[in-house]
Amino acid sequence: MSKTVYIIGAGASYSHSNKEFPLINDIFKVAKQLFVTSLMDDINSLNLNYEYVENYIKKNFNKSILDSRQKLDIEYILTNLEIDIEKTKSNDLQIVRDRVITIILVTFFKLTSKSDYYKKNSEYFLFFNKLNDNDTIITYNWDLLLDNILGREKIINKIKNLGQIEDDISRKQYLRMLKYLSAYRDLSWDRTSEPYEKYQSKGYYLKLHGSIDWLYCPNEDCGSYSKVYPVKKIIGEEYFIADYKCSECSSRMKHLIIPPVLNKNYSSFPFIKKLWNIALEELKSADELVIWGYQLPPTDFYNKWLFRQKSDKLKKVIIINPKCFNKKRKNKKLPRNMVFLDPFLDIFKASKIVPEISYYENYTDYINNIKYLDKY
Prior knowledge:
By secondary structure, this protein is an alpha/beta fold. It has helices at residues 10-16, 27-33, 51-61, 74-88, 91-112, 123-130, 145-149, 152-157, 162-165, 173-181, 270-284, 301-308, 338-348, 363-367, 372-375, and strands at 4-8, 38-39, 42-46, 136-139, 205-207, 210-216, 228-230, 254-257, 288-292, 316-320, 356-360.
């Protein structure tokens, strides 16, 4: 059976939600609009829970998290913050980092709670209907839009009966992640424990940058250290993060979010390292690769390395993104956007057998086989 691996970035959630979900540089702007960083009765006044973040950004970048006219590059800010923490070990900087993660969590939670995103013709539903059982999804998104469509809430509600729920789930990618990779695997007798010589490919849902509903125990002396628990309840009363404690050592659990920084330090999170290992094996077994809503930054060396481990039998690469071509140019034939495409072409054109590469503006066009250049 042929195997497709899907690489899904923020552009997919942005498109599925009719552009309501933010791209990475618009998170602070949307957080203000949703009254996460601003006050409900005055959108231009700061919620004092985020005063540390505001002061840090003003001091280092001369910008405000409440000024929607200013573009705040969250990757640049978090990278700068991680370096500061590494050099100074300041507790205040740790608070800034925790508050930025809270902004991400609460903003995405509020957005996910909007029922308008679950219209049956939205792109993630189209994707769900096309998905085969052995296809694998690799995503860099923290949100839960696709998780919920893959059955997240139903599966977590029956977490102690994972064996019984198997027949009720039509697409098992999320279930397999929970059952075989997360901490909940300890609840199941149905797990692989012996080493293997040849990898047996399955369909998985792999969130390589973490998720807003993933918790882990940070206590290195605890038996549950590094194990990840997806939870149903994320936000408590008045939009404060729900306060979970480790059942083994009673340490305060932390949310596993890998910020989009230059040095992602994946080795600090064994669960994430495990997901990367599985992603590597799945890519090596792929006949077709679909890259949807994801841009490969020039400095993202981890993912460049991952993509280069692709299978030699890879036949097709599909890139779904409105950035593929420059529609602003008035030429009769649309020119390719080489700033966006070059990082991908550098990888796939270097293959022993170059796969067929096709471009689509959005997922609906891909379903209907309307290629970018045929459309314009």
